Automatic annotation (TrEMBL):
InterPro entries to which the protein is assigned, alphabetical: Glyco_trans_2-like, Glycosyltransferase_2, Nucleotide-diphossugar_trans
Keyword Transmembrane in record: yes
Keyword Transmembrane listed: yes
Ranges where the Glycosyltransferase 2-like domain occurs: 15-175
Protein name: Glycosyltransferase
Organism: Nitrincola tibetensis
GO MF annotation list: transferase activity
Transmembrane segments: 237-262, 274-296
UniProt keyword list: Membrane, Transferase, Transmembrane, Transmembrane helix
Amino acid sequence: MLTPRSGQPTPLITCILPAYNEADNLKEMVPLLCEILPKLSDRFEVLVVDDGSRDATEATVLALSERYPVSLLSLSRNFGKEAAMSAGLDYAEGDVVIIMDSDMQHPVEMLEVFYQRWLEGYDMIYGVRADRSDEGMVKRKLTRAFYHMLSKSADVEIQPDAGDFRMMDAKVVRALRSLSERKRMMKGLFAWVGFRSIGVPFKVNPRFSGETSFGIRRLSSLALTGITAFSSAPLRIWMFIGASVSLLAMSYAVIVVLSTLILGTDVPGWPTLVAGIGFLGGVQLLSVGVLGEYVARIFSEVKGRPVYLISDYRRPVQVEPKDDE
Ligand code: UDP
Ligand code: MG
């Protein structure tokens, strides 16, 4: 079949695996990947980004690299998944680059479907979670509310059920590298760069071993980054709230004046005064808080610190898998 990509030399596929304490998972994941990837292309490499793991992740990858084409990029400490993915993208040399979790939650079989799409000419192919029944009700509702708000206010459309499980063309990777943002929500940046994209539904597997490192704190911090990075709606909302409160206050003033003129009321109403001051104080503190989020973001961008630091980069001498495998 003639496809937009036919006639090109065999593409090099780089599969980035961000890993934080994933020794046990990588032992399963890497061999599995090295079974699937040769079906797509003769030239492939796995790039494990060790995000400051405290377990045997590094030793495991080095042991694996004796049998499989695995490179190891070690960050100097734990910088978080967004930074680890950015590091992987900066070092990935592939014509086709894959990002997936190292905990087996993203099914490797999907890569064949993704690759087919790439051959058809799509530049970015992302996995869309077919169902979220594995998550708790509260998390599901909060996620839905977050994406609803983001889609209403952001300048780009961020797919609610898409994740970081993706395959992309080298030109998308180059585009992503050109973004100098420090505090990143990759999912937003993937959407922001554009290109011919398509979502493919898949079912998330349970984690093979260990526990998720995305608790409520990390998730809410990521959500805040997403909102402040892609929308200025929260700032605008306060303008409207401010205007409405002022209007209310003015109407109340008119009522007070009129009632004094007509009914000749004396000066009661200190409870109203206390309630009014309290309410306004709350509103002001909240709005300063929202402003603060944006100022903090400016501050972290202005400092200009790198997104991650590399402590080690090791590539295997032998890049092809052994024949007996
Ligand atoms: N991860 C990482 N750095 C971190 C936290 C997580 O590189 O600080 C990696 C982790 O090893 C895994 C992926 O990001 O490959 C997804 O993490 P996790 O499974 O904890 O999150 P969840 O699947 O619950 O979203
Ligand atoms: Mg996971």
